Amino acid sequence: MIVVTTPTGNIGSRVLAQVADGAHPVRVIVRDPGKLPDDLRERVEVEVGSHGDPAVLDRAFAGADTVFWLPPGNPRAATVDEVYSGFTRPATEAIRTHGVRRVVSISALGRGRASSVNAGYVSASLAMDDLIASTGVAFRALVNPSFMENLLRQTETIKNQGVFYDVLPPDYASPTVTTRDIGALAARFLTDPSWSGQEEVPVLGPQDLTADEQAAVIGDVLGISVKYQQVPVSSLRLRLIANGASEAMAQGMVDMMTAKIENLDHGVRRTPQHAVDTPTTFRQWCEEVLKPAVAKA
Questions:
Q1: Could you give the 3-state DSSP secondary structure of residue 74?
Q2: What is the pTM of this model?
Q3: Of 200, 234, 273, 278, most Cβ neighbours within 10 A?
């Protein structure tokens, strides 16, 4: 039995679509079953509720062999720890109680570098991984850099102003990855019973690009002039708070992005395997995802 959390989320939905097509029985934990695609709802067991609820976890993990773990975001949380380790603690008890054999989680790139600084969300994600690992379960933490999908928040400014914004320097080359590639990699681990032990799996996408290089690709795909504009980290914090984030969560984002500027995402040497595991290039993603989204903006 494979248990999938966040089955209607950006990554969880991709995981579910793939594992539901396999030979393993699948159980999902979901607050609103109506958000599941009709064809998938008929092929999986559904446990209604939050995967932060011990009672829900006790039912969902009974008889489970493998779990896909991803805590939901909560921009209004009182602390960053509450979103990651705090949410995950009941799951560690359920893992022990029910003898779950394997866990695959979605986490953040930066171990080693994040240990020497407060990297906000990244530090909290890695602490969550350590909490899961402390159960002794076989564990694969898929550690990610930034997602290409983050640009979908700026489709209107790209379309109407020919610009997108971020805090990274324009000549700073960094890895990015698509949620569909992350989901596909997670599904491969979930359906493979042969692995054991505990490891981080760096998920880097096929290439590092600077923001200026991304702008050139976006412009070429859209057929318009697109530029990148760097903004101060302080303005990111103010924007997040204005959009309803708590002080702690806004600061956690600032701490993460500050650490990224200081090379947080460059602690892993890129190998050809990274392009095999996560093959979607930024250009391909722009053609298949960003371009249609900008057209609808």
A1: coil
A2: 0.93
A3: 278
Residue 85: how many CA atoms within 13 Å on its side-chain side? 17
Domain boundaries, the chain: 2-146+176-204
pLDDT tens readout for residues 182-237: 999 999 999 999 999 999 999 999 999 999 999 999 999 999 999 999 999 989 99
- Name the H helices within the chain: 12-19, 38-41, 54-60, 80-81, 87-98, 121-133, 155-161, 179-190, 211-222, 233-242, 247-261, 272-277, 282-285, 291-296
pLDDT in tens, 142-196: 999 999 999 999 999 999 999 999 999 999 999 999 999 999 999 999 999 999 9
Average pLDDT over residues 121-126: 96
- The torsion region of residue 173 among left (phi > 0), alpha (psi -120 to 50) and beta comes to beta
**CATH architecture group of domain 2-146+176-204:** 3-Layer(aba) Sandwich (3.40)
Whether 199 contacts 139, CB under 8 Å: yes
Distance CA 183, CA 86 (A): 24
Q: Taking each helix axis as running N to C, give the angle between helix 233-242 and helix 247-261, from 0 to 180 degrees, rounded to the nearest 10.
A: 150
Contacts of 242 (CB under 8 A, 6+ apart): none
Evaluate whether 178 touches 205 at the Cβ level (below 8 Å): yes
